[in-house]
Amino acid sequence: MELFGSYTSPYVRHIRIALAETKTKFSFTEADYAMSAKLSPAKKVPFLHHNDLRLHDSSSILKYVREKAGERYFADKKDYDQYCLVNTAMDASINIFLLGKENLTPENTQYLQRQQHRVNDILKLMENKDHAVAYEGPHPFSDGELRLGCFLSWGLFRQRFSLDEYPQLLEFVDKLNDYPTFAETHPEAKSQITE
Ligand SMILES: N[C@@H](CCC(=O)N[C@@H](CS)C(=O)NCC(=O)O)C(=O)O
């Protein structure tokens, strides 16, 4: 099984965590923009090759990895909704981040303002929810919680937002950082990757 991605992508990080949790053997290939444009119609990372199978999105990859290991892909609809909302916030944040490199910002581009409002409102909603409470599953955190953690950790790493106004989310990230599988996949902990 070959996972293509980058060390910094929060989507790829979630897959690396799921692969580690399920003890799935895999190889990791760093894919830059040119490689992802050539090998995936989505032109994004992650993508996965396993024998003849080609998967092009972190959600389908997550489903494949969990189910292959006999685990469930989202037993809980609320957890799944959290996962979807966080994906929306993450897509918007990454869009703002990448367009910022071309000097398009929420200050000078109306649609990016809407993207920024999405991020802010989803963060607010997440702040007002309970996190890291008891959950029935084989691992310490659900996939909705892991996705939120990958997003928050990426936002802090890339300085996209601060969590000063979100004390509950800050506490949640601290808790996740105490989970070795999460900590070992931090963008700055490159050497820990592989199987
Ligand atoms: N829906 C995709 C989103 C993946 C995504 O946005 N990946 C970013 C890196 S974090 C990317 O490759 N962006 C390249 C681009 O936007 O051209 C997934 O869940 O896998």
Layout of strands and helices, then pairs:
Layout: E1 2-5, H1 10-21, E2 27-30, H2 33-39, E3 47-50, E4 53-55, H3 58-68, H4 77-100, H5 110-127, H6 143-157, H7 167-177, H8 180-183
Parallel strand pairs: 1-2
Antiparallel strand pairs: 1-3, 3-4
Helix pairs in contact: 1-3, 1-6, 4-5, 4-6, 6-7
This protein binds glutathione.
**Fraction of residues in helix:** 40-55%
**Oligomer class:** single chain
The shape, in one word, is globular
In the CATH hierarchy, what is the architecture of the largest domain at level 2? Up-down Bundle
Q: Which ions and ligands are bound to the chains?
A: glutathione
The end-to-end distance, rounded to whole angstroms, is: 10 Å
Helix- and strand-based class?
A: alpha+beta
Low-confidence stretches: none
Order of helices and strands: EHEHEEHHHHHH
Give a short account of the largest sheet. 4 strands, mixed
Give the tally of β-strands: 4
| Domain tally | 2
